[in-house]
Every structure is written in C-alpha cells, then in structure tokens.
C-alpha cells in the first residue's frame, strides 16, 4: 500500500532531522595553500624561502573533532612538494597523508593537489609540514583540533590558547644543504638558529625587535601548544619562574603532571597549562638542543620568546625591562629527558592495552656507513665512507617512478617487496661500545612489512651504538600507539616485561627511543594502506632510517582503502 502524501512528508522530515543531527557540529573547512618563494629577513639578511601563502610559519588550521578539511595545495615554487598532516589518523584516506613517493608522487611546480580528510577521535595539537627534501625547514604550521561543540576540555577552560612552534633556521638554502651532504656523503651543515613562531629571539644578531611576544594577564591560565618543527634537534624548553602542567601530547590527553622543563622531539607536540602567578613583568620562554649522540655537531644556540604580563597599571615595562631567564638543562642531560618522558601517562579510561598480540616485532634503529666507490672521495669518516642509517639492517630507498600506495593499490610489480625482516638479520650486542665493523654497512632496499587488518602489533624499537648511539624520535604515519615501556641497554624480553605499563601508558604518534636504549609500542592495524615509519630527525630519514607497513584491507567498504582521488599526482 502506497504511503499517503502526509506520511511521506513526515518521513522526509524525520530523515532530514536525522541528517541534521548527524551533521550537527561537524563542518567542512576549505583552504588554499599556495607554496611559493617569499623574501624573509632573519639574522641580518634577506633570504628567499619557501612558504605557504607567503607566511612563515604557515597558516594555523583550527578545526573541531569530526570536521573535514579540504586543502587545495598549489605549487608555485621551483621544487617538487607534498604536505603531510602530521598525526592525523587518515582513516581510509591514505592518499591524503602526504609523504613523497609513499602515498603520492610529488606535486610538480605549476601543479596542484586537493587533500581531503576527516578528523575522527582526535583532540589537541597536531601540525602540518612539507614532506619533500628539506622543505619542511620553512613549510610548516599548527593544526589545532578542539572538542566538538558543547564538549568541554578535560581540564578547566584556559583564558587563552597560544601555538608555540619551535623551528630551525639555516642562512643557506636548506635544500642546498642536504643536497651537498648527499653529494659528499658527509653530515649536513648544522643550522644557524632555532626559532619560536618563526623568530630567533633576543640572543641572535638583528633579531631583538622581532622576538615573539605572548601577552598575558596576571592570574590567568594559558594553554600553550608546543610543537617541535625543528629538522634535526630534540629540544629542552623552559619558562622563567613558571611551572608547566602537561595536559596533552600528540593530540592525546594525559594525566596532568607539573614540570619545569619539557623535552620535545621533532614531530612531537606538548600541550601545557601555565598559570600567570608571578610578579607582572617579562619572562623568557627558552629552548635549546638536547643532544645524545657522541661527537655529533649540533646547533648550540638558544631561542627565546617573551611572556609579557599586562598588569593594567600605569607603568609600561616595554622592551627596556630585561626578561627573567630560565634555567636550562645541559645539552646532553639524558636524565632530564628520561624523567620528563616517565611523567607522561594517559587517563586510564582513554586507553586499551591488548594482552593477545598477533605480531611481535623487533626493529633495530641506528646509523651506519657505506663504503665509497673506488676512486670516490667521500666526506664520511676516514674519507672513504658515506653516512647511512637503517632499521633491521635495511636502509630504506624511496621509489622514484611510482608511489608505494599507488603501486600497492594497482598491484604494480617491481616497486617494492614485502619481506622487511621482523627481527634483526644478525643478533648482536646492540649497545656495545665496539660493535663489529662488519655490521656497519646495511643493505639498501625498498622493503615493506605486511600486516593483516585488525592485527595487534607489539614492536620493540632498539637503538644501536653503530657510529654513535642516539635518541631517535620514531614516527608512524596513520597511527597512534601506546608506549608500554622504555629503558636503557639491550631489551631483555624476560626481565624488561616487568617494566610494562598496562594501566595508563601514554599514547603518541612519535616516540623518542632512548639513547643506547629501547622502547616498546603497541597498536592495532585498523587503518588500511601503506604507512611510513621513520626517524623524525630529517638527516636520518634522508640516510634511510625508515620502513613502511603495508596494512591490508579488511572486510567490506569500511575496512578498505578508498579509491585514489582523480587529481592524485603522477610520477614522471
């Protein structure tokens, strides 16, 4: 029997109301990112740098959980480029992830590509950056995800929120810096400055007038969203005479814990609440390098911004009042970095540790050396080697003729293999002072590790002392993971399991694997696609400290990778 006009109308009305209810609070944000060369003056000289929309740092994206972002990236620069939305899960939308030759071919000069993705189940601070060559030295910006409308933070609402982006500056063109290092096989020149929101600060030449200033009112509490966008340095951060309460990392909430110093690795974010409870004057935020490698060149400068109290009184402190300077740890103070990491815990109700594990993996991470060709003079140690890096003795080689995801989706042979080793091919004393030089030369290859959809993965990341031990910030694209434990020395599966935190492990997308130590992480392979895992020290990914997981489709459309967009860039 056919429905009456009135009943049909009521049905349509109910369906439309249901649709409006489902869409309530979720918005679609459209942006255009024009990648272009822009003149910028820093450290007394004007440089032509690559920017987005002429801004340095680039635009801050502000959304709510559940929103969709559509960003049309137009390349008007002279270099190939891609943009990575660091920490976004990209559920079924791997084509929008951004790493060059992994999920897409680069956007050529004069070309464009529309990144489209929905933010699901994530709140807090993330960021975006170029994922081609060393363009991310200047192509980066904040990505702020607030709770849905009418949903509060799990802490008291702050009076103000401020992104604080830590960066790294070269007077030379960063692309030229890494190209020269790749040509010679030596280490690239270190940066000339660190920056806070694009400015070096008071302790660099020609920089005082432009130092980043953060105005505050006495008694208020501010949410400072710290992002480490530096290329090659982990950073200590302190604020003079103020404590910081950590409430989130990598867009995951934490149990609040109070500290006077942060250690933030490249790729990581840290949200802190700061109560302005000191005398109303000026205070430095300061950041300097944490360096764990031995005999490694580094940028030994200190960047600053200024917190300026607005007391509403007649006196004007102005730039004439010297800000109070904070105490910073020594550049090699691993104990401070370890204590900070140990303080980060998840609220119990927000995490689930899986007892039944499907894939137990063990990956070494570290440096190495390639022998030079006969007659070739190289700039590595002894003048006859080139620096390299690897995981499980495989130095990752990015393809050039196709992207890994495209080759996987269309089953194109010859681009990669799926035989990345689950364990080191040779087991040895990973953190010994004198590892046999026979183990220093890895195998260059494009190997992926396949994962069945829904499998529970537990991965030991083990630093090695080859060339030098070092703290490595390891980032997995497309995933958050739980950090079950960290420690020093060689991981012992019998003794170290006692250190596992099954109650409230922190959830992150980038883990700082301790120098001469290890970290154990766990995640569920619930996002189909090809997902890069790499060291976020860009010099190390350039040398091959990377691999990729190939997560197979599950059952049905909702467990399968979406088809590629029509404007997906193709390789030459």
Automatic annotation (TrEMBL):
Entry keyword set: Apoplast, Copper, Lignin degradation, Metal-binding, Oxidoreductase, Repeat, Secreted, Signal
Residues in Plastocyanin-like domain copies: 35-149, 161-311, 419-553
Pfam families: Cu-oxidase, Cu-oxidase_2, Cu-oxidase_3
Record's subcellular location: Secreted, Extracellular space, Apoplast
Family that this chain belongs to: Belongs to the multicopper oxidase family.
Enzyme class: oxidoreductase
Main location: secreted
Catalytic activity: 4 hydroquinone + O2 = 4 benzosemiquinone + 2 H2O
Record's keyword annotation contains DNA repair: no
Cofactor note: Binds 4 Cu cations per monomer.
Descriptive protein name: Laccase
Function: Lignin degradation and detoxification of lignin-derived products.
